[in-house]
Amino acid sequence: MLISMTGFGKAILELKNKNISIEIKSLNSKQLDINTRMPNLYKEKDLVIRNEIKNKLERGKVELSIFIESVGSDKETKINKPIVEAYYRQLNELAQDLGIAMDKEPILQTIVKLPDALKVEYQELDEEEWNLIFEGFKTALAAIMNFREQEGSALQKDIFARINNIENLLAEVPQYENDRIETVRTRINDNLRDFVEKQNVDKNRFEQEIIYYLEKLDITEEKVRLANHCKYFLETSNTGNSEGKKLGFIAQEIGREINTLGSKANHSNIQKIVIDMKDELEKIKEQLLNVL
């Protein structure tokens, strides 16, 4: 079954003093590219989050966001009392030395603006709270995996339909083959008749050369290989694993056989079939860019 690399998952938690929203988005990428956005309080768990994403999503450009709506904060600002007292004593002594009356309220407002008068104390990570957040993260991760499977199912239907279209187009080729061979034979004879009649040429040998040339234009091998590649593509898609890269390689081989078929065609109707095959294959390649 095919799995898409495009997906979205979300979980919302209501904790004692905060609401937490966890969102995971993913887009197609050749490798796994993880970007996390979370409050500093949870940064120490970044590696745990990344490992879980790596194990579950495998490939894609993944963005994780953790948003907090809190009645409090992960940091608390407090007055650094010893520093403020020291500032006040020094200012008071200076005012007395200078004979200046000191208004206490404006002085305190000034002091708290001085360096180190305020200190910031950060909250420590609560493991019990983190366990709840991690469970929410896993819920969002399960949601994005489900989303990817649904998208993959839609991709698979479309890709399979286009592979079947290529197989149906291939089935139309044989009806033109006899006419194609006769057209090539006639063209060779018409172009070389005058030369053969005017030159001392062994006609039996010449006929053998024409047969050899026509055999070089035979497309039986390309048809067989193309049919086998299409069959292998479908088999690989149904293995139970999403094999995006491998399917991309098989699609390249399908394209190679289609191109060879076109170069050997020498028939307008077969050329039209080849063009339709290429159109279907290009759409398959575009879809495969999103397959895990």
From TrEMBL:
<protein>
    <recommendedName>
        <fullName>YicC family protein</fullName>
    </recommendedName>
</protein>
<dbReference type="GO" id="GO:0016787">
    <property type="term" value="F:hydrolase activity"/>
</dbReference>
<feature type="domain" description="Endoribonuclease YicC-like C-terminal">
    <location>
        <begin position="176"/>
        <end position="291"/>
    </location>
</feature>
<keyword id="KW-0378">Hydrolase</keyword>
<dbReference type="InterPro" id="IPR013527">
    <property type="entry name" value="YicC-like_N"/>
</dbReference>
<dbReference type="InterPro" id="IPR005229">
    <property type="entry name" value="YicC/YloC-like"/>
</dbReference>
<dbReference type="InterPro" id="IPR013551">
    <property type="entry name" value="YicC-like_C"/>
</dbReference>
<dbReference type="Pfam" id="PF03755">
    <property type="entry name" value="YicC-like_N"/>
</dbReference>
<feature type="domain" description="Endoribonuclease YicC-like N-terminal">
    <location>
        <begin position="4"/>
        <end position="156"/>
    </location>
</feature>
<dbReference type="GO" id="GO:0004521">
    <property type="term" value="F:RNA endonuclease activity"/>
</dbReference>
<keyword id="KW-0540">Nuclease</keyword>
<dbReference type="Pfam" id="PF08340">
    <property type="entry name" value="YicC-like_C"/>
</dbReference>
<keyword id="KW-0255">Endonuclease</keyword>
<comment type="similarity">
    <text>Belongs to the YicC/YloC family.</text>
</comment>
